[in-house]
Design brief:
Oligomer: single chain
Largest sheet: 7 strands, parallel
Number of helices: 9
Radius of gyration: 17 Å
Bound molecules: guanosine-5'-triphosphate, magnesium ion
């Protein structure tokens, strides 16, 4: 186990020297990263953190999904983490997973409109509406997906599985700052995530403490480098 700045928080990574991403095709468009997970786990907080970390080095845009409102896009605009022109809201009007998996047309339209309006982009983040452990993105919409759960949902969540936990390209276990308050045992979550995910990476995070979600931003830097065909340019 590799340990980051807080020695009480486990971090699971692939073995040192092992490339964290399966080869992506070289893309002539922006990499599209889907961010899904249960209601309130910190998806919008993660998007905001990634905007803080990456918006000066990557050409970035964001699509948010809410069922009845444009709440998340409005939050990001108010937070001032990205030029409002680069943020679009999709009001799904239906179960969030339908709009990211079954009928992805509204989301695809939003991504394409952003690309037309802003010119070539490096990265588009698509935040799903909050859903349950069964939600996944269509590969027709995104290239890689991040699944965000939080420790406040209980340390049982990784054990419960579901495609977000078992098969997402990156699992983020957020709100580690709350673990002592809710009695969540992070080592149990670490053990269960490893058992469910094999070699797929898991990152423990507290966005409340790391406002740039540094390990996730690094993961995305590698991803974008892969998609440009210079995988080692940003390797550290
Ligand atoms: N303590 C703590 N709170 C956090 C952290 N990350 C996010 N939050 C809080 O958790 C709440 C929900 O965060 P959001 O980012 O809105 O969650 P979400 O997954 O986008 O929620 P939906 O889009 O409604 O599903 C907010 O009040 C955040 O401030 C964290 O690391 N620690
Ligand atoms: Mg949100």
């Amino acid at each position: 186990m590799l340990v980051d700045h807080d020695e009480t928080v486990p971090h699971t990574h692939p073995e040192p020297g092992v490339d964290p991403h399966p080869p992506l095709p070289v893309l002539d468009r922006a990499v599209r990263v889907g961010i899904g997970g249960p209601v309130g786990s910190g998806k919008t907080a993660l998007v905001a953190a990634l905007c803080r970390a990456l918006s000066t080095e990557l050409r970035l845009a964001v699509v948010t999904n809410d069922i009845y409102t444009t709440e998340d896009a409005d939050f990001l605009k108010r937070a001032g983490v990205l030029d409002p022109q680069r943020i679009m809201a999709v009001e799904t009007g239906c179960c969030p997973h339908t709009a990211i998996r079954d009928d992805i047309s509204a989301n695809l339209d939003a991504v394409e409109e952003l690309e037309q309006r802003l010119g070539p982009l490096d990265l588009v983040l698509v935040e799903s509406g909050g859903d349950n452990l069964t939600a996944t993105f269509s590969k027709g919409l995104i290239d890689q997906q991040i699944f965000v759960v939080d420790v406040a949902g209980g340390d049982k969540v990784p054990r419960k599985g579901g495609p977000g936990v078992t098969a997402s390209d990156l699992l983020v276990i957020n709100k580690t700052d709350l673990a002592p308050l809710v009695g969540a045992d992070l080592s149990v979550m670490d053990r269960d995530a490893r058992a469910r995910r094999g070699d797929l990476p898991t990152i423990f995070l507290s966005i409340a403490q790391d406002k740039q979600a540094t390990p996730v931003a690094d993961w995305i830097r590698h991803l974008v480098a892969h998609s440009r065909g210079h995988a080692h340019a940003l390797a550290r």
